[in-house]
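Exercise 7b. Backbone tokens:
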């Protein structure tokens, strides 16, 4: 999943970006409000982490602009302000959650993961498709009760496809939501990733969970779904 992190503190921005990447997120970062607005308007983010005290454009102004432009991406506000009035103002402007500094990285990750689930209309942290189960808190998947050995990117790809189960997912969408780095148009990196994931989650006696729509993309159809 792709997250936009808008934070002017170089030290905190670097720390949070690394923590998010270790948790399997693709991350875009911005150091000021104008840069943050540019990235946010480009779309493709599953959640936005937004500091309030930013140079060039403050966080509330940025958030207000996004909502005025009908950008519905869920936003988690970071701030050192801890008054009820400040929290209410942020939520009234269009924020979806609020985290006061200082905070534990684990709490931020849990809140971001919850926002991502909400953006796909999922309220539970566990997805179940027949004998295939995906635990989005532990970030592990199992089949018939046996935990699968998945690399971080394989898990992220599985989670993204599962959250969009039954929908056609294009290669471009996978590139935008899963990969930090830019993928070359002629690259077969997505096809290779899908092939690797199939080997990890499929069983020889059953049809693949991930169906290819030639020239269009992929569709996740879990067993029993």
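Sequence design result:
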């Amino acid at each position: 999943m792709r997250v936009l992190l808008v934070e002017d503190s170089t030290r905190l921005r670097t720390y949070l970006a690394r923590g998010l990447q270790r948790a399997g997120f693709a991350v875009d970062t911005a150091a000021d409000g104008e840069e943050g607005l540019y990235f946010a308007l480009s779309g493709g983010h599953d959640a936005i982490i937004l500091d309030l005290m930013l140079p060039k454009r403050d966080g509330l102004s940025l958030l207000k602009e996004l909502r005025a432009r009908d950008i519905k991406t869920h936003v988690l506000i970071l701030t050192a302000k801890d008054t009820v009035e400040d929290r209410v103002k942020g939520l009234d402007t269009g924020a979806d959650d609020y985290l006061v500094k200082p905070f534990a990285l684990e709490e931020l990750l849990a809140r971001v993961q919850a926002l991502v689930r909400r953006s796909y209309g999922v309220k539970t942290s566990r997805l179940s498709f027949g004998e295939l189960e995906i635990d989005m808190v532990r970030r592990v998947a199992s089949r018939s009760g046996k935990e699968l050995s998945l690399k971080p990117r394989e898990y992220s790809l599985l989670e993204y496809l599962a959250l969009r189960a039954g929908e056609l997912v294009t290669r471009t969408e996978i590139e935008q939501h899963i990969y930090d780095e830019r993928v070359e148009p002629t690259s077969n990196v997505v096809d290779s990733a899908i092939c690797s994931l199939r080997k990890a989650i499929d069983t020889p006696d059953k049809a693949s969970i991930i169906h290819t729509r030639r020239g269009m993309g992929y569709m996740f159809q879990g067993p029993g779904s």
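Instructor comment: The chain has a mean pLDDT of 88. The chain has two domains: 2-119, 126-220.
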